[in-house]
Specification:
The complex is a heterodimer of chains A (76) and B (349). Chain A is 88% helix and 0% strand. Chain A is mostly helical. Chain B has a domain of 128 residues: V-type ATP synthase subunit C domain (V-type ATP synthase subunit C fold). Chain B contains 20 helices and no strands. The model of chain B has no long low-confidence stretch (mean pLDDT 90). The chains are: A mainly alpha (76), B mainly alpha (349). Chains A and B meet through α1 of A and α2 of B.
Chain lengths: 76, 349
């Protein structure tokens, strides 16, 4: 039981962690481009911010998976 | 997995993303195509006033108490061009910065040519300074310091230790035009010697090779019009072209004007000039169409590969074209050239 719980916890951690790394990689280019555009024209702030956070959705998926793992299996 | 990681490490997305997005926004402040129609209807002073409301304001305000007329315009355009190019170097980092710096060495060659030519033919310093664009390794102050040397020999000695010195040593023994060609060749050879180790450098090299093609074809056509000999043409040909290699150039140099025109059909820029060639347009018009096509090619390539050096190079070219256009309009207006004749010379994209 203890090992299973531990593995589920590792799985949940990986789900959030890997999703975070993935979106970080995606965001590096978008963030850099957004800052570049904003440096020339501050009006790009809104659009830039929106575009930059779009890859964040992937982390939310990871988080959802982590919660599912924890609540569905660890509680059982 | 290892190859993916290596690839991710090699392509520095953020370096290109930042600079490409920034130049894209900078491109919005270039004078739009339809504004040129308005400019064509203006007088010289109105053009200066118009420029005061654009990105040239700072330079014109700074220089207006020192200069007037064409000199004010020349200084303002060159200073703005220089400031813009220096800004590109300042705001880029990593590989893009290195590539832009290398490309902008073109201005070093240009400025050195101006100094040598100006000194040899005894032009006043003020007139030589007018043409300086301190966008390469040598900034405006360095160029003025070079110009302040008494003789051409002093200027050449001051350049000792640079790659230009070897070529410039021969000033006086070789014709100046040959030395200028050698300097151009040195610039392009150095650029093409960059090792194409990554995709982004390959884009740059392809771009340079296409630029060499255009330079070569313009040289061939100009010398054909002026009845230049085969040797004269071949001395000016820059090796390393995309389609016009030295061998191709040899073939073209041996042909007559009509044969050259027929021979151009197989090259990538043929579409740009095909109609004009059939109409029998003069060389100056063909050159304008070649430049227009080049600008459009660069823009479309930069749209295809946004995370590369191409958007920056496209901006560099478009900015240069803009200053050239403004110079043509203003000078044309001052000389009383008809509107239509000026319009024909403009590269509007």
């Amino acid at each position: 039981m203890a090992i299973e719980t531990g593995l589920i916890a590792v799985g949940a951690g990986l789900a959030v962690g890997l999703a975070g790394i993935g979106s970080g990689l995606g965001e590096q280019g978008i963030g850099a481009a957004a800052v570049g555009a904003m440096a020339e024209d501050p009006e790009f702030f809104g659009k830039g911010l929106l575009m930059t956070v779009i890859p964040e959705t992937i982390v939310i998926f990871g988080l959802v998976i982590a919660f599912l793992l924890m609540f569905m299996f660890m509680g059982a | 997995m290892v190859s993916i990681l290596r690839r991710l490490r090699r392509t520095k997305v953020r370096d290109y993303a930042y600079i490409s997005a920034r130049v894209r926004v900078m491109r919005r402040s270039l004078i739009p195509a339809d504004e040129y129609r308005k400019l064509l209807n203006m007088e010289f002073n109105e053009i200066i006033r118009y420029l005061e409301e654009t990105q040239y304001k700072k330079e014109i305000d700074e220089l207006t108490h020192k200069y007037s007329g064409v000199r004010l315009l020349e200084y303002a355009l060159n200073m703005n061009l220089c400031a813009t190019y220096n800004k590109l170097v300042r705001i880029s980092s990593g590989i893009p910065r290195a590539l832009v710096t290398e490309y902008l060495r073109k201005w070093d060659v240009q400025n050195i040519k101006s100094i040598i030519r100006g000194k040899l033919f005894g032009f006043p310093d003020e007139e030589i300074k007018e043409s300086f664009v301190g966008a390469g390794e040598y900034k405006y102050e360095d160029l003025v310091a070079l110009l302040s040397r008494d003789t051409v020999e002093d200027v050449i000695n001051a350049l000792q230790g640079t790659p230009y010195h070897e070529i410039l040593k021969e000033v006086g023994t070789k014709p100046l035009s040959e030395i200028e060609d050698e300097l151009d060749k040195l610039y392009y050879t150095r650029l093409l010697d960059i090792r194409p180790e990554s995709e982004d450098v390959r884009y740059l090299l392809e771009f340079i090779r296409m630029e060499v093609d255009l330079k070569n074809i313009k040289t061939i056509l100009r010398l054909k019009v002026e009845d230049g000999t085969y040797d004269e043409i071949m001395k000016s040909i820059i090796p390393g072209g995309y389609q016009i290699s030295v061998d191709e150039a040899r073939k073209l140099a041996n042909m007559s004007w009509d044969e050259v025109m027929r021979g151009l059909e197989s090259y990538w820029f043929w579409d740009a000039i095909s109609e004009k060639v059939k109409e029998g347009a003069p060389l100056s018009i063909l050159e304008v169409y070649l430049d227009k096509y080049w600008c459009n090619t660069v823009i479309s390539k930069s749209n295809h590969y946004p995370l590369s050096i191409l958007p920056v190079l496209a901006y560099i070219i478009l900015k240069k074209v803009e200053t050239d256009n403004l110079r043509i309009i203003a000078r044309g207006k001052l000389e009383g050239v008809p509107k239509e004749a000026i319009e024909e010379q403009l590269v509007i994209v």
